[in-house]
TrEMBL record:
InterPro entries: A-amylase-like (IPR013777), A_amylase_C_dom (IPR015340), GH (IPR017853), GH13_cat_dom (IPR006047), Glyco_hydro_b (IPR013780). It comes from Streblomastix strix. This is alpha-amylase. It is an enzyme of class 3 (hydrolase). Its cofactor is Ca(2+). The record marks 312 as: Transition state stabilizer. Belongs to the glycosyl hydrolase 13 family.
């Protein structure tokens, strides 16, 4: 009897961690997606579907402004490459039918058709099944704000002028929230969520999309261009599935308005700080300053998306050419307390600048096992092995050229923004006197000194990661 009661209790806890929906066609109850807490265990590999891998495996040339031939089937064929890097989730481009030669997927023509340039619906289903077989998850990029730049009659199902904010206007003042929400971003028809048909159709569509393809999480595009009240309705409809919102803004006060309607947000404030610190050589103290500001706004920092590169920004190495300092920045992203996101090509040292130069085909590199690939693989293994989402993040030492933090009581991470050699004595560490430590990147053994202090030698910009031997 006791065994039966325990089973029932476990089932209740599990069901409470996922949104439950009834399939209107079959009447079956289904679990939708993975929760915020579950996504905290993930390391995400962001890829542009058109640029990651071709079905035919050819090393083809292409015009970066147009389709290059990447596909769902190409991703399937290269999952060993992604999993070998240590990633356990992928974020792919929007999957819906788009205007001709719109390779990135952000101009939807039909909300109910898959983009045939990427493959068939069955190809997508097989990709997701193969991911799940590997205990990897999929995050799909979705757009609620706008559609393709075309005649309204060509948009399914929003084929009437009344479904859009009118008259068309251009955003000229990003401090004017009404403009941000109602004007047309880059001239793209702006959906009018106030319209009851638009609102209800969007909410029904996303729930059906998640159910149909067994999607684990969403990356939500252009969040600040849609009214908060709409996101409140979406959150109420899908309260537990992880939604990583894009708010392209470094102002913590501004993005904090959305923290209760998006259970994850791309951490642009920290991205800005990491650029200033590791690209421009400004003081490492900025990392702590931004973290303090974020914590004051009561974000769930472990649900934020941490990144150095993405498809909207020049690649990190387009500015910072020093590989060791890039490794220091990567070490922060991979071992700090947000969900780490690696943009495809970072592991190959890609250094493209502004769009579309930052959207290079990965097949140009040959998917080689290069130094940066091996380095990220080590960091991913360290995170999966030693860093649990519940471990505290504490900054232990900060100066203009050095930032150290701990995760729990067993790991200390040291980063730098200079290639100069120097040493630091860290007296405020998580360790105790006499603890045996392994520096995981060089495999050196270190003994913690009086009161747990550590003497750290920083060489040529390389990071250091100390873990207590158990």
């Amino acid at each position: 009897m006791l065994y039966f009661v325990n089973i029932i209790s476990l089932m209740f806890v599990y069901l409470c961690n996922a949104h439950i929906s009834t399939d209107s066609l079959s009447g079956n109850t289904q679990l939708i997606g993975k929760s915020k807490e579950e996504w905290k265990t993930r390391i995400i590999y962001q890829l542009i579907t058109d640029r990651f891998a071709r079905t035919d495996g050819e090393n083809a040339s292409c015009d970066l402004h147009k389709m290059c031939g990447g596909s769902f089937r190409g991703i399937i064929n290269k999952l060993d490459y992604i999993q070998g890097l240590g990633m356990n989730a992928i974020w792919i481009s929007p999957i819906l039918k788009n205007r001709e030669n719109i390779y990135h997927g952000y101009e939807t023509l039909d909300f109910y058709q898959i983009n045939s340039n990427f493959g068939s619906e069955q190809d997508l289903i097989e990709l997701i099944k193969e991911l799940h077989k590997r205990e990897m998850w999929i995050m799909v990029d979705v757009v609620f704000n706008h559609v393709a730049m075309t005649n309204y009659s060509q948009i399914n199902p929003f084929n009437k002028e009344e479904y859009y904010h009118q008259p068309p206007c251009k955003i000229v003042d990003y401090s004017n929230q009404s403009q941000v929400e109602n004007c047309w971003l880059s001239g793209l028809p702006d959906l009018k969520q106030e319209n009851e048909y638009v609102q209800n159709t969007l909410l029904d569509w996303i729930e059906q999309l998640i159910q149909k393809y067994n999607i684990d999480g969403l990356r939500v595009d252009t969040v600040k261009h849609v009214p908060i009240w709409f996101w409140e309705k979406l959150h109420k409809r899908l309260p537990n599935i992880y939604m990583l919102g894009e708010l392209l803004d470094e102002n913590v006060d501004y993005i904090s308005r959305y923290k209760d309607v998006m259970n994850g947000i791309l951490n642009y404030p920290m991205y800005g700080a990491l650029k200033r610190v590791f690209q421009n050589g400004e003081s490492c103290r900025q990392i702590r300053d931004v973290n303090n500001t974020i914590e004051m706004k009561q974000f769930d920092t472990r649900a934020l998306g941490g990144f150095l590169d993405n498809h909207d920004q020049p690649r990190f190495r387009s500015v910072q050419k020093n590989t060791n300092i890039f490794k220091s920045a990567l070490t922060y992203i991979m071992l700090a307390d947000s969900i780490p996101i690696i943009y495809y090509g970072s592991e190959q040292g890609y250094s493209g600048g502004n769009d579309p130069q930052n959207r290079e085909p990965l097949w140009w590199c040959g998917y080689k096992y290069v130094d940066l690939y091996a380095f990220i693989k080590i960091l991913a293994a360290l995170r999966r092995t030693y860093i649990k989402p519940t471990l505290n993040f504490i900054d232990r030492y900060k100066s203009d050229h050095f930032f150290a933090f701990s995760r729990g009581d067993n790991i200390l991470v040291c980063t730098t923004n200079t290639a100069n050699n120097f040493s630091i004595d860290i007296t405020y560490s998580p360790f105790k006197q006499g603890d045996l430590l392994t520096e995981m990147l060089s495999k050196e053994t270190v003994v913690a000194g009086e009161m747990g202090s550590i003497h750290v030698e920083m060489k040529q910009g390389m990071p250091r990661v100390f873990i207590k031997k158990n």
